[in-house]
Amino acid sequence: MRLATWNVNSLTARLPLVLEWLEAHAPDVLCMQETKLADDAFPAAAFRALGYVSAHHGDGRWNGVAIVSKVGLQAPECGLASEEDAHGCRVIGATCGGIRVYSVYVPNGRSLDSEHYAYKLAWLARLRAYLDERCDPSSPVAVCGDFNIAPADTDVWDPAAFEGMTHVSEPERRALAEILGWGLEDVFPRFHPDGGVYSWWDYRGGSFHKGYGMRIDLVLLTQVLASRCRSLEIDRDARKKSPAGHKPSDHTVVIADIDWEA
DNA sequence: ATGGTGGCCCGGCCA
Questions:
Q1: Which positions in strand B are less than 7 Å from the protein's CB atoms?
Q2: Is the pTM of this model over 0.85?
C-alpha cells in the first residue's frame, strides 16, 4: 500500500501537476487538501481515467478535502459528525483497501491572539473526540493531511524565527500529542530521526531555495500499520516547477509505503 | 523595506 498526502493549494490550478505526479508515482491512495472546489466541480473523470475512484468534500473557494484511490473507496464520510465541521469542509474519510483513511486540513490559526487560533485548538480537540467515539485504535487507521503544526523543533528550519508564532506553540503541539495519544504514530521520525526535512515552504522570498521550510504535512498511523511501514518520504521535487512547466503548490507530497495488501 | 508570492476571482482576503 502506497499512501500519499498533498495540500494542493487549489486543485483547479494544480490538476495537471497532480495527474502528472500520480502517473509517475502510482500511489494506491492520495489524500488532498485545499482543493478549493465545490463538490460538483471536482474533476472525478480525470482521476477515473487514471484508474482512481474519488470522494470529495468541499463547498467552493476555501478548504475542501478529497481522497482518490485505486484500491476501492467505501463508506465515505464528510466532516466530524457535526454541523460546524461539515460546513468547514476540513475532513473526509473513506475505507480504501481495508484501511480507514482520513484526509484532514487543520485550521491555520493565523496568530496566537486570534480567534482562529482558539478555533484551531478546539477543532483538534474535536478530532480527538471523534476518534474516541467512532474509531478503534487496534484497527488499521491512517489520518493524513495538513496539520498546520510542526511536531518538533527539528521540523522547522529555524525555531528561533518562529518564537511566538503559530505552528510551533506548546498548546498546538499538546493538541497534536492528544491525537497521537489516541493510538496514532507520526511515522516520519522512524525514517528521519534527525529531522530537517520539510513539506511546506512559503512562496515568498525564495524560501524553498533557501531551505526555509517546515514539516506540517503528516501521516499518522495506528500501530498495526506503523509497524508495517517500510518508508516515509517527502517528495521535494513536487515543490518545483515540473518539466512540463506546471507550477507547484506551496506544500509538497508525503508518501508512506506500507506492507499491507489491499 | 510593514514588503514578498500565489490562489481565489477582480478588490481584498487568505495562506
A1: 4-9, 14-15
A2: yes
